[in-house]
Queue: 2 jobs
Job 1
Amino acid sequence: MTDPAVVLKQVFGFDAFRPHQEDVVGALASGRDALAVMPTSAGKSLCYQIPALMAETGTSVVVSPLISLMADQVAALQEAGVAAAYLNSTLGTAEQDEVLARVGHGLRLLYVAPERLGDERLVRALRSGPVPLVAVDEAHCISQWGMDFRPDYLRIRGFADRLATDGAGERPPIAALTATATERVREDIVRTLGLKDPLRVVASFDRPNLAFSVERPRTGKERDARVVGFVKERQDRSGIVYAATRKQVDALWEALRASGVRAARYHGGMSAEERTGAQEDFVHDRACCVVATNAFGMGIDKSDVSYVLHAAMPQSVEAYYQEAGRAGRDGTPAECVLLFREADLGTQRFLIEHGSEGCDDPAAEQARLASGYARLEAMRLYAVGEGCKRHALLGYFGEKAPERCDAHVEACGPCVAAAARAEQHVADEDRTEDALKALSCVARLQNQRRAQGRGRVAAVLLGSRSADVLERGLDRLPTYGLLSHLPKAEVERLLDLLCERGLLAQTAAALPVLYLTDAGVQAMRERAPFLAAPAPRRGTGAPSSH
Ligand code: ADP
């Protein structure tokens, strides 16, 4: 067996491993399963390519969901002199036969689309020789709690088991790789793939050079004006503006062009030619920014993107972090700004409900919806949260991070604001009484089995005389009007703060309801102090930001 460092140098031309690569290579080469959670560009491919090449002979299999990336990977390997090929729906029968004939006869890496895994001829060809390993790229696709669930990924386990050809009946080691995985998804990957005592590596997701912030324009018009203003101030740099729909891409692109900005646009409704043109204009700096749907970015190799501005909220923190993470690849300071409007939640809920083909199995469909809503709620909490954005993002991926951005990182919006308040000696306010009133309102509704959504809880606390409140008799509750001394926006903010700090939570449903968490129950019992920054000033015309 060849030394990994030798393969790294001779085949790929690199002098040193990146963090975690060597550990994963070592595990796989010794026959152990591995789960590698590493951010995009951390170098996941080498983790399985090197052990595949360290074996004397045999064809290793890489399951990959993205046809275009598959072709790129294979082309890069061939350029490095590695016998690699792929099998997917783009190949004709003759080409597929050609590839299958090379399996076990010199082919070292075979990339396959998940829907090919049931192909008998493929299994037979692989069983004729040793299979050093099976790599599962984008392994989160196996989890219904992940972003892009692919039912075909559920076949991988059975497929790998069928490759057990050695005397001991052991299947090849499996490498599961992903850039996005929460604790829950990680467990799903290990369980569903049947990984046996896998080596687990989780690289840090921190991107110290990215400054995260959220702004809250009140109207669509205000948001569009902010997008144009933001990009205009940064025409000497490159940036990406993400929009929620094709229509929104077109509208923002036109607004930018009308104000003299050399913007490109990119969405699935354009022809392949137009899309390639837009991509090239952006990569070669003929356009200073590209306005795009989330279809843009996969496989784009541009390291000097200095901002990613989201004109609308994505469906999940995973998606947000992946898209925002396209900024600052070169390590220089870059901005990741999200423009959040409550109204965007409706669009995203609609997309969760109608955006995918759905499943025939009602239980699976239920689970898909619930996980979609739960991820959307986590994204909403990121948007409305007033704590450190870096802490919130890394915490979401199960990583412990300091409560505040320190001197080694680009500070996020809330940390910059907190530093400014400290400098001006603006202290946090004691909001314990208001917080307890809000908690007791939710508790009482819950006890009466009349749990309500955030809007209705706010209406009750405000003592609203709306028909909705009166018809339901909510005005007769003892907690009705307890916070009528506060403006509506402030009551809503208080409920969001209680969610952010884990004292309240929302159910994962189309119409989410607020409920008290265990921590909330305890806070009520102990009358725990609740401090918060002074309310942001409203009505000044400037969108509030944090
Ligand atoms: P990922 O799959 O994690 O997004 P890739 O495997 O595509 O990342 O690697 C990203 C880039 O980093 C590629 O251009 C790759 O050649 C390069 N790379 C990977 N490992 C190393 C290394 N040890 N030294 C230098 N460059 C590396």
Job 2
Amino acid sequence: MTVSIAATHARGKFATDKIFGAAAAANKDVAQYGKAMVVNATIGAILDDNEALVCLPTVEKVYRSLPITEVINYAPIAGLPEFLDAATALAFADNRPDAYTEAVATSGGSGVLHHTIANYTELGDTLLTSDWYWGPYKVLCEDALRKLDTYTLFDENQNFNIKSFESKVTELLAKQNNLVTIINTPAHNPTGYSLADNEWDGVLEVAKAAAKDQSKRLVLLVDIAYLDYAGEKNECRAFMKKFSNLPDNILVILAFSMSKGYTMYGQRTGAMIGISQSKDVIKEFADINQFTSRATWSNINRGCMRLLSTIYNDKAILAQVEKERSEYYAMIRERSEIFVREAKAANLHMLPYIAGFFLTIPSNNPEAVCDKLHEDHIFAVPLAKGVRVAVCAVPSAKITGMAAKMAQAMAVV
Ligand code: PLP
């Protein structure tokens, strides 16, 4: 028996991160065989064609030009007001819904998840997301003494499975009054799927039907971590307009993050943007989430907040950042197009990829497939029901041939 002095609810907590595990295996292979031999498709950040981590050049320039006092000083708990305005405007672009909105600064999108779980579910409640999901959702729920349940993301035609979504919403609301649903779109991690606008209509119909029972409270947490790599700016944000005129007992929260959109992953800067028809709900949103920030991390990174407001308030700088980002978006598209084309040729079944950093191959034996791929010096991330390939991190030259090798590995395991 090992000795434990942790509180009972904390005993046995241990973060086994498959992504970092797979990345470590790839690094070991690089050390042994050299970088040129190894395909490392485990990393969730943009690497250029030389496999160097990308910082958008204008983002770097602006960041380095900030006065040191703006980098080191404390910031208001709720976030710099100019940052909150910039984050809100950049999240919506031309698709601001007809509703009240408020924003609270958070430690990235992860911070939005943390606060939403803490403040919009009861202890012991169950949150809902799709069966393909970013692993930390579950860690965040469990650490907060909540649970996570899933609906089936795709139907038999590989479209959004509205029936499964509806039945899970009904099932959970029969047991609890608050329901937080996490929807990661557009450019979902790990599949690359984006909900179509009519699929959003279906989601909102289900939510509105459930909200007819006034004792129920629904929160739709829209995780937009990959929004800036999801297609034309206003097209991939068009769904946001639909958050107009929702009932008072439905709150939408956008999880805005600077990690990917501004290549500021480790700077831990984001914002939760609340959208509601009710002035009271929005005031409460600002109040309770600021309080939780004070209790969790105090204020967040001032320099990175100033970076965003500086970019946003200078049209030429913003245009330059958007241009640079669109070039990297095109680079990721080219890589994914090679993979999708070759997967088709090799009869390799993929989940529907629309955009984003990752694509996924479903498998009954993902660990074995990944192990087999190691023989070809290919490293990807084994998920519960498939293998995730980070097209954001692999140069086109190394993507070429990868789908065929995956098809071979799938055939023998
Ligand atoms: N949501 C998804 C789906 C992600 O993949 C990530 C990061 O990998 C995040 C949210 C949160 O990122 P951050 O906390 O760095 O903003």
